[in-house]
Design a protein that fits this description.
Blueprint (H helix, E strand, L loop, with lengths): L2 H11 L4 E4 L7 E3 H17 L7 E5 L3 H13 L3 E4 L13 E4 L10 E4 L2 H5 L17 E7 L7 E6 H14 L9 E5 L5 H12 L3 E3 L5 H10 L4 E4 L1 H13 L9 E4 L6 H10 L4 E7 L2 E8 H4 L5 E5 L4 E5 L12 E6 L16 E2 L2 E2 L3 E5 L4 E7 L4 E3 L2 E3 L1 H9 L4 E10 L5 E9 L5 H9 L10 E4 L13 H7 L4
Parallel strand pairs: 1-10, 3-4, 3-5, 4-7, 5-6, 9-10, 9-11, 11-12, 12-13, 25-26
Antiparallel strand pairs: 1-2, 7-8, 13-14, 14-15, 15-21, 16-17, 17-20, 18-19, 20-21, 22-23, 24-25
Helix pairs in contact: 1-2, 2-3, 5-6, 8-9
Amino acid sequence: MNTVEAIFHHARHHPTALAFCAPGTRYNIVSYGRLTVFINNVAHHALAAGLKRGDIVAIVVNDPIVHWATILGLERIGVVTLSLQSQQLPTELGLIAVLTDRTEKFATQIRVVCVDERWIEEGNGEQPAVETRRDGSALARLIMTSGSTGEPKAVPLTHDLIMLRTHAFGVVWGNRVSPCARTFVDVGVAANIGYLWPVYVLTHGGAVFLRGSDAAQTMQAFNLYNVQCMVAAPSGMAEFLDYYERSPAFACPFEVMVSVGSMLARPLAERIRMRMCSHLVSGYGATEGNPVASAPMYQIAHIPGAVGYIAPGIEVEAVDEADRTLGKGEEGLIRFRGPRCVAGYFGDTPGPEFRGGWFYPGDLGSITADNVLIISGRKKTIIDVGGDKISPQAIEAVLLSFPGVTHAAAFSRLNPLGLEEVWAAVSGRADLSTESLRAFCATRLAEPFVPARIALVEDMPRNPAGKVDKRKLLETLSLS
């Protein structure tokens, strides 16, 4: 089933019901009836631009409502979409065009199509003469992920897989989630959960709330519309927690909060449950297969590294280096498989992450006798910040490109809230400044990967192979 069919169905039943709310943005609130007009207008404009079923296009659109209307309008006519936050286009995917509302030029030969409010406002709002129903195995969406390697790859989602994953949400995330008709999704649409969760809400006739123009307007919308559920990475939750702790007059209306993207540290969870919402759910998964595990934090907080009970329909194992299955409580390399998992990355034959029908996310852990999944670390040194992954070498390469830097080391550390931050140490010319280094990184790295702290050191400890000994560096380094 095409997800747009479900949206049209709800629009016929309740055309005035709220579908989207992005407080303080151009469109602010959009009803189901108005959303269907937007979808149909986008479909007509896309067809007029020569786009057709099976084409793959990138969407780089800042306005959240326009972005979502573009996704759904293209899905209506069978165009495969890929949402991006930056102007760096993965040209190896065979993109036909990039649809954007930005004025900056793209460093690519790919066709650029200007998308603005005219795409959703101009037109008669009638459905184009294109068949909506299609083969469920057809490709619908590409999600970029760094997977377990830190190298960007595209995960292909078919219409059937999208429906399978979203239908599992009501079971996997617990019975507090299903009754929630109004959900705040604080995850970017380019991410797996940032796409799937709004689809889940819309196909059930609910309202999706997105981050508005500022935090105050967003928080006011929570109370004005009695938003019931929040879905966010721990870093996003920590940001709103800070607002609520500094604004005691604001009551938090959430009945349930769902943590996604990265592990939720116990100190942060305790503060969230105290100030924002007592029913906080921890989740674990991957773009390659999701959801995998979940549990209310009050049930697993006493278990170090616990991320949740293994979800129905997903098989999870801990294995040794020879891929032999380990017993309950034995630590090894985590792997999982099931109908909600992809078989490989788009355009690639299954790589080392996919073996024998299993996906290996690169995590180390174990499974308790009660089927609780415990994640104790990572096999590789990929830095994971709020679900966004990058290799330390990519950050080090940027630091080393700064004039005067001779050596650089990047790694992650936990801040006082238990969230991972990127830290770095550099050595080189005596006039280096941490402020200049951070500003330089901010122009070349996505915001989550800009080092929160940089230490200037005289010399880097080395191992016998001549590489930076990060273990010794962390033992001796004092970052203030």
